[in-house]
């Protein structure tokens, strides 16, 4: 059996007979850290859960909004969604909508986030305007 493949796109099986495609799996904990760093300025508290998870395809993020509401968020390839209403809590019976971005999710949960994000955007635009003149 002949299989045509490129070395950088595949690896040879242990038997060396055919090529198998490499599947790139994102480490969701690294993705979660990036999410936290992006929006930490606009929430009261936010961090990647150390006690939940364990699999590389899911990560949990604890967030407290500026209004004082606490959530546990799940991050997967499907997006972000609320899975609990306390830090490190996953309610299996809760079925909430997935959001493609953390911005979209927080925008629906927190007017304080929306205001902080808008203010940060305005400040940045003002700095760009001042630097451009």
3D structure, described in words:
Pfam families: GSKIP_dom (PF05303). Belongs to the GSKIP family. Residues 28-128 form the GSKIP domain. This is GSKIP domain-containing protein. The chain has 133 residues and is of the alpha+beta class. The protein has one domain (28-132): Hypothetical protein (hspc210) (copper amine oxidase-like fold), CATH 3.30.2280.10. It has helices at residues 28-39, 102-109, 111-132, and strands spanning 10-12, 19-21, 45-48, 59-64, 70-76, 79-84. The protein has a four-stranded antiparallel beta sheet, covered by helices on one side. Strands 1-2 form a two-stranded antiparallel ribbon. A hairpin with a 5-residue loop joins strand 4 (59-64) and strand 5 (70-76). The longest helix has 22 residues, at 111-132. Residues 1-25 have low confidence and may be disordered.
Summary keywords:
four-stranded antiparallel beta sheet; two-stranded antiparallel ribbon; copper amine oxidase-like fold; alpha+beta; 32% helix; single chain; disordered N terminus; 133 residues; 6 strands
CATH architecture: 2-Layer Sandwich
CATH topology, by name, is copper amine oxidase-like fold
Strand order of the largest sheet: 3-4-5-6
| CATH class term | Alpha Beta
Identify low-pLDDT runs.
Answer: 1-25
Biggest β-sheet strands, sense, barrel = 4 strands, antiparallel
Give the overall average pLDDT. Answer: 83
Query: In CATH, what is the homologous superfamily?
Result: Hypothetical protein (hspc210)
- Over all CA atoms, what is the radius of gyration? 20 Å
Sheet/helix structural class? alpha+beta
Order of helices and strands: EEHEEEEHH
Domains (count): 1
Helical content, roughly? 25-40%
Q: What distance lies between the first and last C-alpha atoms, to the nearest angstrom? A: 67 Å
**Strand percentage:** 15-25%
Tally of separate helices: 3
Number of strands: 6
Shape: elongated
């Amino acid at each position: 059996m002949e299989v045509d493949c490129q070395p950088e796109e595949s690896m040879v099986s242990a038997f060396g007979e055919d090529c198998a495609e490499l599947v790139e799996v994102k480490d969701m904990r690294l993705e979660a850290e990036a999410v936290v760093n992006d929006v930490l300025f606009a929430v009261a508290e936010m961090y990647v859960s150390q006690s939940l998870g364990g699999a590389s395809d899911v990560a949990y993020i604890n967030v407290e909004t500026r209004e004082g509401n606490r959530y546990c968020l799940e991050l997967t390839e499907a997006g972000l969604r609320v899975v609990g209403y306390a830090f490190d809590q996953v309610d299996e019976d809760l079925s909430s909508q997935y959001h493609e971005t953390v911005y979209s999710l927080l925008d629906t949960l927190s007017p304080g986030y929306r205001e902080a994000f808008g203010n940060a955007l305005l400040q940045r635009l003002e700095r760009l305007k001042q630097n451009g003149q």
